[in-house]
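Dear colleague,

Thank you for sharing your sequence with our group. We've completed the structure prediction you requested, and as agreed, I am returning the results in plain text so they can be pasted directly into your records. Please verify that the sequence below matches your submission; if there's any discrepancy, let me know and we will rerun it promptly.
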Amino acid sequence: MKAFAYLAELALALLFLPAVRALRLLGWRPARASIVGWWGSETIGDIAILGQLLTECRAIAATAPLDVVSFDARVTRATLRMLGYRDVRCLPLGVLSAWALVASRCIIVGGGPLMESPSMRFWAWRHRLVRAAGGRVLLYANGIGPVRSAGGAETIVSILHNASHVVLRDSTSVAWSAVHAKRTDAVLSFDPAFDFVRTLHTPGLTRRRQLALALRSPSVPYLDGVEEGLATEQFLEVLAAALNHISATTDLRFVGLVMHDGSDDAAMYARLRRKLSDPARLHVPENQDVTAIVRLLESSQAALTVRFHAMIFALATDTPFVAIDYARPQGKVTAAAIDVRCGDAVLAWDTVTESALRMGLQRALDAGGASSRDVSAASSARRAVLGAALA
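Please find the predicted structure tokens below.
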């Protein structure tokens, strides 16, 4: 269904293209900016990215009209209401989104990965149409990978070539862009969710004897042949053993973070609870939003993060953490951690041992807080590119 909607959008945009080109030749200059990407199935991390992007757009071009294109407008309209941006239009895939593609001043690909996915082919065609119509394309702090095939790499190279402005969220992605797409002008940023969370963070809160958990089972494209079900079960066994060992000698509470209602986060906690020697120690609060996740992290002594953006949230709340990288051989978790000099806090999903995980968690719990990470230079560089794209 999504593929059909993308095809219909592209066909309509192609029909609109001659009229838009004629209008531009007559001197028309569009004012709108349209945000595209993975919207319609957003996680808590995606919501934080969108919140930061909208904040920066308003600071740079306060009067510019903004649209967000979504393949599930109901979900994204709720996100916009939660963020307080009721004046931002949410466009479903169709006539309005097709017009937005070719009739916007700038199309902003709002965060998330450029990866091995059927959606990338549609994104590449979108960007060609935007540039043919005279518009700009900004890649706003995207990552690159996983890329498993020559075809996938070719599509991502096309997306990079058709972008007028490129900002990438980690050094690994910048290097890939330079080598494969010859884009040596890509600007290095850090994930924008970090800055959004910093605006919500309350430093100095008393941390409880509590370990925050942010679990998920990885999606197949990240695993490179590792069998998902078996690897997930093995990881939960290792995690439960480590938690049981730690909790045998200390009064430690576990709190589960649910960062995507449409995924299996809650099911992962149910599976883990059955493996704990004291299941009552694990609590999973209901109705978690961005602010609730931030509060849970900043009140915890440490965190175990399997979700990528849970690690970003931990960094932004100065919460000591152990991160699990589920991409094989390495992915966005490791790339981001290395950029802020905490690569030693990352363990591999399918090879981690109980002793390594237990020792890592114990170090995080005993750390007494983490040093604040300064990514202001990278954030300023990102905002400068956004300003150029919106000018």
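Summary note from our side: Residues 61 and 222 are 37 Å apart (CA to CA).

Kind regards,
the structure core
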